[in-house]
Structures are given as C-alpha cells and as structure tokens.
C-alpha cells in the first residue's frame, strides 16, 4: 500500500478551511516549530492514542521531513480514518515560507 501524500501547498489550503493537522514528531521537535494548529501525538504513541484523533474529515499528518508522517498516516488509515502524509514535512513547510509556531512546551 502506498501512503497518500499531499504537498505543503495542499496543507496550507486545507488549513484555511479548518483542516485537522497531526504532528507526529517528538515534543522537543514540536516546540522548535510546528504548523499552526497542529496537535502533537508522537508516532510511537499514536496507536494507543487513536481516540484523541478526529474521526470526521481528513487528517493531515506531518513530521520533520515526511517519513514518520507516512507511518502515522498508515496507522490512522488502518484504523479507518481519512489521513494523508504531508510530503516534505515541517521542514518543507518552513522552506515554502509558511508560518510556524514555537513554544517552550507542547500545547496539545
């Protein structure tokens, strides 16, 4: 199975429409800069925390570069969710000039 992927441009458009974004990196990476509105659930914790992920609508899964987000999207798809990996991850998001949020600790 090939994990469905979208571009950072697709994510920006979806965010403007209120899309759900799931960041599957570790907390230390997340606080250094994440997509605005992204909820943090590290990929290793995702199977145990599926109940925290939106059930309705598409979930855009992002990591640093796009590798862990594929794993995260696959976990969600296997659980019956509509999920896609964001190609290029947060690094690609920032390279494209999109805004990031930083902080001393995760908010989600």
TrEMBL record:
CDD domains: RHOD (cd00158). InterPro entries: GlpE_sulfurtransferase, Rhodanese-like_dom, Rhodanese-like_dom_sf, Thiosulphate_STrfase_CS. Residues 15-102 form the Rhodanese domain. It holds the Pfam family Rhodanese. PROSITE patterns: RHODANESE_1, RHODANESE_3. It comes from the Bacteria. Gene3D superfamilies: Rhodanese-like domain. PANTHER family: FAD-DEPENDENT OXIDOREDUCTASE (PTHR43031), PYRIDINE NUCLEOTIDE-DISULPHIDE OXIDOREDUCTASE (PTHR43031:SF1). This is Rhodanese-like domain-containing protein. It comes from Nocardioides aestuarii.
């Amino acid at each position: 199975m090939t994990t469905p992927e979208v571009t950072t441009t697709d994510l920006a458009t979806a965010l403007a429409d209120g899309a759900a974004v799931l960041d599957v990196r570790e907390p230390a990476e997340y606080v250094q800069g994440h997509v605005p509105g992204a909820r943090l659930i590290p990929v290793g914790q995702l199977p145990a925390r599926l109940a925290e992920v939106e059930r309705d609508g598409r979930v855009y899964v992002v990591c640093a570069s796009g590798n862990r987000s594929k794993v995260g999207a696959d976990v969600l798809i296997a659980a019956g969710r509509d999920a896609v990996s964001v190609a290029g991850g947060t690094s690609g998001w920032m390279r494209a000039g999109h805004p990031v949020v930083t902080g001393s600790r995760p908010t989600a």
